[in-house]
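Box 3.1. Reading complex inputs
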Amino acid sequence: MTATTSPAPPGTEPGGLPDAERRTPRRRPRAQRVVERGASRVFRWTATGAGALILIVLAAVAVFLVLKAMPAMTASSDELVDGVSFMRGSSSLLDYVGPLVFGTVLAALLALLLAVPVSIAIALFISHYAPRRLAAGLGYVVDLLAAVPSVVFGLWGAIVLAPAVQPLWAWLGENLGWVPLFGGTVSPTGRVIATVAVVLAVMILPIITAVSREVFLQTPRLHEEAALALGATRWEMIRMTVLPFGRSGVVSAAMLGLGRALGETMAVLMIISQGFLYSFLLLAAGQQQTIAANIAAQFPEASDLGMSVLIATGLALFVITLVVNMSARAIVARRKDFSGAN
Amino acid sequence: MATTDTRTPGPAGPGAGSELATLLRQVDPRRRRTDLLMRVVITAAFALAMIPLVSVAWTVVSHGVERFDAYFLTHSMRGVFGGVDAGGIYHAIIGTVEITALAALISVPIGLLTAIYLVEYGRGTLARAVTFFVDVMTGIPSIVAGLFAYALFAVILGPGVRMGVVGSVALSVLMIPVVVRSSEEMLRLVPNELREAALALGVPRWLVVVKVVLRTAVAGIVTGVMIAIARIIGETAPLLITVGVADSINFNLFEGRMMTLPVYVYRQFQQGLIPCSAQDTACIATVTYDRAWAAALTLILVVMLLNLVARLVTRLFAPKTTV
């Protein structure tokens, strides 16, 4: 196709072929397309329209959020502070959003810190340690964690986990209180960001594990066998072949998990005792709050301007997760060419 | 992956081999210890992840089973106050079923048609953009989807709108990408020979897609849709801000607040322990938590049932091909 339609190479006679003959291969697909008429054409356009609708919906999400956030972004600071009951402590919109973004990122990163090592280990266990016959079943068991609704995790975290881990936090505060993270008065209820991070970690565990497991299973068998043949132990084989091969996959899995943790609402809302500070105290009550949980907490009773403020914070969350998710996808796409068995 | 035993390098003869094996074992105990240590660490990590799963399952079942009975399933919260030993989730079940059904009604045609577009027609920039943005759409936080639905209806109908259909739109935003992804995967599994054979017989393109491609992939698509429903049926945050809370039964998706199961769980939890006076023996201090656990049990049972049926559908109705 390309050979016949591209201009003739310099060595050959330009008028070697009659024009009509040279064009026929280009025309044929066009002629085929014309045959498609009536119901087939309607069907094609319906399907294409549905595809385009996805793009429209995503654009609409951005447009409508901006539209409803506009009043808050254009209002003066005085209007905001006077008109919105929950903004009393802050002087401007940025001043209000700042600590929320901080709390959101802090909780998500802590969760990631806890979840990634465990997820990698679980993925390795399923892909390289567990007996072959059990592996699929074990993978399904981990996926069960993803099926539990977030509100149930919130309920569990607040009623069961928080009292259960409180002694551990108290011990950390007593013995490692000189570490800035564990300083301050340890909350007697356990409803702190450290507990939130544990629950978020549990919630993002399945997705990180699932993606990592897929990548680990794709390690070229020959690499593994070569390592074993050189006398490597199983762990050395994993360190030398499986982990380098799966690195980019694990990175993107972690970022997908980060995206989930950033947007999680109910678990945070039900567990944390909220505060609006730039605080690294993980074990003290009333320090941080996340964007999503704050929206859910304030929205039902917010005034019109208050809703606008909350939608503006939601817009910030949308942008953050969009950036994280898009870079995760980009990493996968960029490394795809190099990660194959070449 | 069951690799062969790592320490024995496959002896040629029994004598020399075992000597080599013992030599290898004795020479480097440090490497062997590291290997053993990592095996223990990795197995322990798996066990660690099972703790929350078992704990969640156990607490939900053991706490929830107490109030989980026919009365609980068939009564609403109308007129229920304080620590009264009454109240149920009938209104929440109605709300969840209606809102989720409408969300599925919106998402399945759009998602399925998009998947058909991507597999059967999609070439060039638009197809690549759709693929990319479907991936991006899976990452939209559920609360943002709720805000979008609220903003959309607030612009059209004015502020303060709270009704079931807004929640359905919010859930559709979350459900569409899941349906697209799973249906696309299933449609790609349909062998090309089937399409070509049908086209060669002169069947129009749309009929090929409907009668051959969709017919072949129907089990997988149904499974995908059910798993997508299982994923969104537990969404709380978008419903909390778009549909609100209610204590009474409301069948109308287009008017007034409705209750849904996940929001019911949150609502009961939020009300906290009831302060009971010592004389009042009919008052149960923990009744709200008990209701929350029982509703959580219902929710988990529904999700598990959907997953289970989805698996059965794949097993029973998968096309019996040897390709």
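In summary: Residues 1-35 of chain A form one domain.
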